[in-house]
TrEMBL record:
<protein>
    <submittedName>
        <fullName>Uncharacterized protein</fullName>
    </submittedName>
</protein>
Length: 65
């Protein structure tokens, strides 16, 4: 089980239902910047899905597609 850290932002890339890559950042602005970069970088990956979540609240902040 992973420990939840306040003010931490979790970005996960999945493809075909499997986690491919994951990253965490302490600043929301950095996490959103990474999210945009990952969209461009992985948009050609079959069945790719990105999800950005604020760990403190569990709120989905962004998703693609």
């Amino acid at each position: 089980m992973r420990t939840v850290h306040p003010e931490r932002y979790d970005l996960t890339l999945t493809a075909s239902g499997r986690r491919v890559q994951q990253g965490w950042w302490s600043r929301e602005a950095t996490a959103r910047y990474k999210f945009s970069g990952w969209v461009g970088q992985y948009s050609g990956l079959h069945d790719a899905r990105l999800l950005l979540v604020g760990e403190e609240t569990g709120e989905e902040l962004a998703s693609w597609p």
